[in-house]
Amino acid sequence: MMNSFHAPVLVNEVLQYLNCTKGGGVYIDCTLGGGGHSKAILENIYPDGLLIGIDQDIEAIETAKEELKSYIDKVKLVKGNFKNLEEILSNLKVETVSGIIFDLGVSSHQLREKGRGFSFREDSYLDMRMDLTQKFDANILINSYSEKELTEIFEKYGEERFSKRISRLIVIERQKKPIITTRQLADLVIRALPKTKKREKWRIHPATRVFQAIRIEVNQELDALEKGLNQAIKVLEDRGRICVISYHSLEDRIVKNIFKETEREKINQKNYGLKIITKKPIRPSLEEIKKNPKARSAKLRVAEKIISVS
Ligand SMILES: C[S@@+](CC[C@H](N)C(=O)[O-])C[C@H]1O[C@@H](n2cnc3c(N)ncnc32)[C@H](O)[C@@H]1O
Questions:
Q1: β-strands 272-276, 299-307: how paired?
Q2: What spacing in Å lies between the alpha carbon of 87 and ligand 1's midpoint?
Q3: What is the pLDDT of residues 59-68, one digit of tens each?
Q4: Test site for ligand 1: of 18, 61, 107, most ligand atoms within 8 A of the Cβ
Q5: Crossing angle between the packed helical segments 208-219 and 182-192, to the nearest 10 degrees
Q6: Other beta carbons less than 10 A from residue 140's beta carbon
């Protein structure tokens, strides 16, 4: 199941919760990546079912095309943003679907690939776009946002304690020389820390939260998640299920809140609601984390659509 592009997380759990083991049905993988979850779904639904795979990264679409080639007559791959889910489905003339999976964030390929600029482990151009056709990237953000705007995103999307100090130093340094590479930015974050913090043995690299914040802003990840989830709930058929795997608290909070707001008992205007299947999020087993340490922060939430006839 592991491919070198990305090792999928919580695969058996997703298959069970999506009920794909019955065979048939139309399923959507909103975050195709290397096609790991899609392949597992296809192994169960082929040849009666159909899988629609969406990713905004053309490199993911190309890899998944190869990975899923034995099922290709029952696969539709779309390069697009899941925030436009209804439009994507309407172009494919698909009205309702049996199950949907979102596996949020970036793939190992995006993190590892030099030149994509998601990681400070290697020096690279500060890019961080998932959609390579988008103009706005991390370089533009770092060199054009005001000190106040930078502080706000580091606080809001990185929950970074030293936001003010970091944005102050960014603004001073970029006047001398533009900040163009991941290493330049990571070093600058370290320089901005108070002396005692600089000397400490770090549990996580001090630039982790700043990089997360920039990535979220560049790709407008939380806005896309809200839009995508609400549209996903709309297009599900009665008893259709939605699985969302998130990797940090900001994402998980949005999933939890949207599920809660759409719970059946609270719905009065729409003729549908959700039944929450996982009262608490599902976490990977210790065995899975041992095999794939990147799975350690994953949280899976599942809900089922209920359409009322009255
Ligand atoms: C964690 S990876 C998914 C890995 C995949 N489940 C697998 O098994 O290989 C997340 C993927 O979602 C894509 N993605 C993130 N946000 C997206 C969005 N708003 N629209 C479309 N794709 C998105 C990323 O480009 C990335 O390829």
A1: antiparallel
A2: 18
A3: 999 999 999 9
A4: 107
A5: 130
A6: 12
